[in-house]
Amino acid sequence: MESITPLTLGRSLTGKSVSLLPQMANRHGLIAGATGTGKTVTLQVLAEQFSQIGVPVFMADVKGDLAGLSKPGQLTDRLSARLKLLEISNWEGMPCPTMFWDVFQKSGIPMRTSVSEVGPLLLGRFLDLNPTQQDVLEVLFKIADDQGLLLLDLKDLSAMLAWVSENSSELKATYGNLAPSSVASIQRGVVALSRAGGDVLFGEPALDLQHLMQLDFSGRGVVSILDAAKLLQDSRAYSTLLLWLLSELFEKLDEVGDLEKPRLVFFFDEAHLLFRDAPTALVEKIELVVRLIRSKGVGIFFVTQNPLDIPEAILGQLGNRVQHALRAYTPVDQKAVRTAAQTFRPNPTFSTEETITILEVGEALVSILDAKGAPTLVERVMILPPRSQIGPISPEVRAEIVKRSPLAPLYSQSIDRASAFEKLKERAAQANPGPQATKADPPGGGLLGGLFGAGSKGETSSTSPPAKGPQSTRQGYVESFTKSMLRSVASTLGREILRGALGSMKR
Asked: Percentage of the chain with pLDDT > 90?
């Protein structure tokens, strides 16, 4: 196995350099500590060094601080003093190749996915459904597959809900009872998700995961930064989106075993949100992904304030650990300190539990895996300063970086191809051809007709009278039927859209 330069985290109090072995990075890691103790800087230092050895990085920027990775750092008096303590004389600022992404399409390349790829389990988490509603949603996905209806965006999902509601009596024999109250609750959740930004998240072109695994022309890994400041306002949406990305990586990447370095490192900031109010079944699926994604060459680093935020079964899989200071003012705090101390291999030269509470900003207790995969003795370490800028960048600089990205043209324009919304609209039109349609009796009737009213996607309302006589109306009907048949064949052949491991699993 080719030797790759280890990633230096910092220097211990005894002058020993503490480094992370790249071949052990896919054994995952934890960066923990109270607010303001230096977690973000540690994350930045690791991201820089992964990029330097040719490993792409993905991270969500919840405060805007990580954007500084795109700019070279500047030597300041404070930085000079720290470099002197670390006995570093050859420091120079250096930016990382960076791509910015944004679900809301304001400060980065648009990041989208489809409803089908997310799948019913994670979509139910987006919608905050109860178990009964979740069951109905899973049946709805099954119906959509059986009917050859692609669910790409929220408009498709709304149309499917309306159609199921109208045809529940016919569907009952095959799929069981679909309670109208549950369908209505899901529909209200879809409306709320749409208002919260779901309209821009769900659609096409969907994110190609290979675009998160890019190298620049010099062979450095590209750091992909998702603007999560607004997304974090809905903690459930934030954690579910990142969980979807993990499940997609797990589902679509091939097995590669242990490599000399990871194919991608995924930093999951504010990791406690992932497990807050998560049902046991979902936590078990997350544990499965964390355990098995190692063989896909992906390393995951959870970033959180307290090790207690991570379930024990998952915490045990995080071999590389960086623990910044914790405070012990209350019994709960003291329990967290004890728990954190117990996750390290003890160093006989100091008390781990006592040291956690007296660490200064920029210091951490560090234990990494050695070449045999065993945890090293915990060391008190002064973390290196990053070589990129600490803190945010201006909107103008960010906009220029986004504009220069070769991926920007690929994702800048949304695509709205024929899917469930269009096909159900065609079915409604065929069932109630033009002359019979009136405002009081819309195509498809009831809720479906209202959903497919005038103005949808710039099309003429089906309540409008035909432009010409009966012959023209018949030609239009034949043409519509022919197109519908062709689309049905194409949709049936391609309807089995891959869903992430978590998106497709039953509870």
From this structure: 69
The domain covering 7-70+224-394 belongs, at the CATH homologous superfamily level, to P-loop containing nucleotide triphosphate hydrolases (3.40.50.300)
Which residues, 6 or more positions from 57, have their beta carbon under 8 angstroms from its beta carbon? 47, 50, 51, 221, 222, 223, 224, 264, 265, 266, 267
Is residue 162 exposed (0-12), middle (13-18) or buried (19+ Cβ within 10 Å)?
A: buried
Q: Where in the chain do CATH 3.40.50.300 domains reside? A: 7-70+224-394
Reading the block at residue 223, the tokens are: 């750091």
Q: What is the mean pLDDT of the chain?
A: 85
- Give the model's pLDDT for residue 283: 87
CA distance 415 to 203: 7
The closest of 2, 6, 32, 3 to 17, measured between CA atoms, is 6
Contacts within 8 Å (CB) and 24+ apart, 455-462: 456/421, 456/425, 457/416, 457/421, 457/422, 462/425, 462/428, 462/429, 462/432, 462/434, 462/437
| H/E element, 301 | strand 298-304
Order of strands across the sheet with 363-367? 17-20, 7-12, 379-383, 363-367, 320-323, 29-32, 298-304, 264-268, 57-61, 223-227, 98-102, 109-110
* C-alpha–C-alpha distance, residues 401 and 230, integer Å: 20
pLDDT band at 307 (very low <50, low <70, confident <90, very high): confident
Q: What is the pTM of this model?
A: 0.83
Q: pLDDT-based confidence at 377, cuts 50/70/90?
A: very high
